[in-house]
Protein: DNA 3'-5' helicase
Amino acid sequence: MGKLFLSKANVIRVQEIPTNVRLEVHIQPKDAKKGLNRLLGKDKTIIYFEKISILIDVFKYLSRMRPDLRGRLGVYFSTLTSQYKEAVMTKFVEGDIHILLATEAAGMGCDIPDVVQVIQYGFPRDIPSLVQRFGRAARDPKIQGFGILYAPPITKT
Structure:
């Protein structure tokens, strides 16, 4: 565990991630938003954030830098109205929204079979949350999904 700069390590047992979900770690470059842009293609994607302020910042960036995604991006977090959240989720399920930027508020009951990619932007608050989020990818066992931890670089202090 020395290579991870951990002085103490614990074993945590969590639910399994399906075998059709490939796990990847991508280290954020200096311009994290630009790097995220490179991970986004045509697949239905959920990007999870820990902070609403970062979610909004990334949403504004993608809206500005990716004209092809305008109208196909959605946001989902706790302080939005119930009606707005319901409308966004319906559009995401139906495919009108292609990329959903969300906080934990979109976690429970989010069972959408054709989500191909789930990206965790930065470190999650805990491992079980990360596993649950990655489990949102490829609910349809016939498709290949991806769970991507998009992490800031770790520096030894």
Remarks:
- The chain has a mean pLDDT of 89.
- The longest strand covers residues 21-27.
- Helices lie at 32-39, 52-65, 82-94, 127-134.
